[in-house]
Design a protein that fits this description.
Blueprint: H1 26-37, E1 40-41, H2 53-64, H3 78-92, E2 102-105, H4 107-119, E3 125-130, H5 134-142, E4 146-151, E5 153-155, E6 158-160, H6 163-169, E7 174-180, H7 192-205, E8 208-212, E9 237-242, H8 244-247, E10 255-258, H9 261-271, H10 280-289, H11 294-317, E11 321-323, E12 330-334, H12 343-354, E13 356-357, E14 359-360, E15 374-378, H13 383-393
Parallel strand pairs: 1-13, 3-4, 3-7, 7-8, 8-9
Antiparallel strand pairs: 2-10, 5-6, 9-10, 11-12, 12-15, 14-15
Length: about 400
């Protein structure tokens, strides 16, 4: 005979108060809405086709030959750590010791969490560019630190960083700058001049910097500049990237950190108690992916740039104000020209109106009003899917 258990009675909530404000992510809500309504999902940022077949075959080969099926080494398999170091040297001229300056993680999400939990203590202030990827706020909260947003603001068809505002945000309690370039959700790519100013500020105020560079190969105009390569930054920067966005295997969750031995050791001390290790066979496959020729990266960029333009042009024709991104695979739009003022309400109603799902940017802001009329769209989809979405969105213009 079974009896119904009675919920524990307590005035204290079950969820840690630091995380009470976060709840279910907007991505889960909007993806469920897409499934329920049969809509085209341009909300969550994942491709609808797999990456290179030869890399998928490498993963299959690893599984079938017993590579990585048991716990891989804590820092990551040597083949992948060596490949990551070679990648940093090949593209940016940055030399890293694969044994002491590279750490493999369960995607960039774990890399961010482990870095912030390792480097922050309660009361430390963290400056993050707003709007920000939602895990940043949650990880800062889990560390007991204080989030200090510096807002990227719409200007001349793009989003711009006010360097004076950034400098003014630094206080004696500031421990760390959390940067994301190319930037999700706005598609902003910080310029070499902006990065130089940020580096000078970090050195002057003795700040640590965590940089999320997962879209490093998705820069459509200009080139990606890693902050760690600038004067005085090598010893204070934790550089994060991952395989998901570059190779279109987001489910494999293979990420990495490059930094100094001291910073890597600190982050690894936390990482070992999060996942310990992950993605064993996939690590061997991504080691091969990192060695793909330049033609792979050139084709990837050209393909996504063309898709960006299809969606951006369609959104403009539908009546949105479009901020054409320089990087990532997201487009931010403003819904004001459509007579709308609440992005969350707009996105919740959009599937019924025209069968498309997007993400309201206001969830990426501390100051919700700053992003109230902004909506983000993912263009990392098949061309036919984007063309169908554009056709559906055209209904808004009538």
């Amino acid at each position: 005979m079974t009896t119904m258990s009675t919920p524990v009675s307590s005035d204290r909530p079950f969820l840690n108060r630091r995380l009470a404000a976060f709840g279910t992510t907007i991505f889960a809500e909007m993806s469920a809405l897409a499934t329920r309504t049969g809509s085209i999902n341009l909300g969550q940022g994942f491709p609808d086709t797999d990456g290179p077949a030869q890399i998928a075959e490498a993963a299959s080969r690893a599984v079938l030959t017993g590579l990585g099926n048991q716990y891989p080494p804590g820092p990551g398999v040597p083949e992948l750590r060596t490949a990551i170091a070679a990648h940093q040297q090949r593209f940016y001229g940055l030399a890293h010791d694969p044994d002491t300056e590279v750490l493999v993680t369960a995607g960039a999400t774990e890399a961010i969490a482990a870095s912030l939990l390792a480097l922050l203590e309660p009361g430390d202030e963290v400056i993050a560019l707003e709007p920000y990827y939602d895990s940043y706020a949650a990880c800062i909260a889990m560390a007991g630190a204080v989030r200090v947003p510096v807002t990227l603001r719409p200007h001349a068809g793009a989003f711009a960083l006010d360097l004076d505002e950034l400098r003014a945000a630094v206080t004696p309690r500031t421990r760390l700058l959390l940067l994301n370039t190319p930037h999700n959700p706005t598609g902003t790519v910080l310029t070499p001049a902006e990065l130089t100013a940020i580096a000078e500020l970090a050195v002057e105020r003795d700040l640590l910097v965590v940089t999320d560079e997962v879209y490093e190969h998705l820069v459509f105009e200009g080139a990606h500049t890693p902050l760690a390569g600038l004067p005085g930054m090598r010893e204070r920067t934790v550089t994060i990237s991952s395989a998901g966005k570059t190779y279109s295997f987001t489910g494999w969750k293979v990420g990495w950190i490059t930094s100094t031995p001291e910073l890597i050791s600190a982050v690894r001390s936390v990482k070992q108690f999060l996942t310990y290790v992950s993605s064993g066979p996939f690590q061997y496959a991504i080691a091969e992916a990192l060695a793909l020729p330049d033609s792979y990266y050139d084709t990837l960029r050209a393909d996504l740039a063309a898709k960006r333009d299809i969606l951006a042009d369609g959104l403009a024709a539908a009546g949105f104000e479009v901020f054409r991104p320089r990087g990532t695979y997201f487009i931010t739009t403003d819904i004001t020209p459509l007579g709308e003022k609440d992005g969350l309400a707009f996105c919740r109603a959009l599937p019924e109106r025209c069968g498309v799902v997007a993400i309201p940017n206001q969830v990426f802001y501390d100051d919700r009003s700053a992003g109230a009329t902004q909506v983000r769209w993912a263009f990392c989809k098949r061309t036919g899917v984007l063309e169908e979405a554009v056709e559906r969105l055209g209904r808004l213009a009538h």
